[in-house]
Amino acid sequence: MTHERTVSIGHDHPSLAGHFPGHPVVPGVVLLGEVIETLRHSAAAPSVRGLPMVKFSSPLKPGEAVTICVDQDEVALASFSCRVGTRLIASGVIELASGTAAQMEGA
């Protein structure tokens, strides 16, 4: 199952203050939050256990439209990529909690 959405982090996002003055770059943790949010928009929103592999390939500047694609190939794993046009921004793997573990997290 593939989940895709396009987002833009505005110039006024609070994480950009000081990251980096004169040359703002969207922090990786903000982008990863958007990746997880993309996965949570699915009908059967799984719980995320971890991000065992993440690679940042290019900086994301405020205001750039980034397309996030999450491919949930297996029950326990999903892969993702973030692109601005054809430029790869980030990619990696998301480890998903099993149904039982996800239910325990909510308890």
Structural notes for this entry:
There is one protein chain. By secondary structure, the chain is α+β, with helices and mostly antiparallel strands. The protein has one domain: Hotdog Thioesterase (Thiol Ester Dehydrase, Chain A, Roll), CATH 3.10.129.10. 20% of the residues lie in helices and 38% in strands. The chain is built from two helices and five strands, in the order E-H-E-E-E-E-H. It has a five-stranded antiparallel beta sheet, with helices on one face. Strand 4 (77-84) and strand 5 form a beta hairpin. The longest helix has 13 residues, at 28-40. It is elongated and about 45 Å long. The two termini are 27 Å apart.
